[in-house]
């Protein structure tokens, strides 16, 4: 083979490789939308549970609108937050329609999932009775006579 042919083959191979890498990068990015860090505003990878640039942890809070805690905001700081009517829960609700251990809200990979702990009256998210659900900002949760809004911050 002559030298120009070899150069053409090598150049073609390099070009293909560049295209392949570009496609892979593009494909990887389009799978899940990037989340922006609310502190440093840089884009975070979906697998990060906290911002690797500044250490910010995606947070959430419960804004109580009905029941004994109405008007209060409680920040979800733990990996597991429980709501119930007796001491020992993260949030104690003096609500006669709330079970002793009623609800758990679990943080996993930056998302928050609510789950019924086998309560008598169940939990309602946006009016639907659910055993568990990944919470979205603005979701309205009802347990007993207590109602709260899930907020991200
Ligand atoms: Zn950050």
User: Could you spell the SSE succession in H and E letters?
Assistant: HEEEEEEEEEEEEE
Specify the overall morphology. elongated
Order of neighbouring strands in the sheet with most strands: 4-3-13-12-9-10
What are the distinct ligands in this entry?
Answer: zinc ion
Mean pLDDT score, rounded? 88
N/C terminus separation: 64 Å
How many strand segments?
13
Query: How many individual helices?
Result: 1
Helix content: 10-25%
Q: Extract low-pLDDT stretches.
A: none
Classification by helices and strands: alpha+beta
Question: What fraction of the residues are assigned to beta strands by DSSP?
Answer: 25-35%
| Biggest pleated-sheet summary | 6 strands, antiparallel
Gyration radius, in Å: 24 Å
Model description:
The chain has 153 residues and is of the alpha+beta class. It contains 1 helix and 13 strands, in the order αβββββββββββββ. It has one helix spanning 3-31; strands spanning 35-36, 43-44, 60-66, 73-75, 80-84, 91-92, 103-108, 111-116, 124-125, 128-129, 132-134, 140-143, 146-152. The protein has a 6-stranded antiparallel sheet, with no helix packed on it. A 5-stranded mixed sheet has the order 6-5-7-8-11, with no helix packed on it. β9 and β10 (128-129) form a beta hairpin. The longest helix is centred in the N-terminal third of the chain and has 29 residues, at 3-31. Bound molecules: zinc ion.
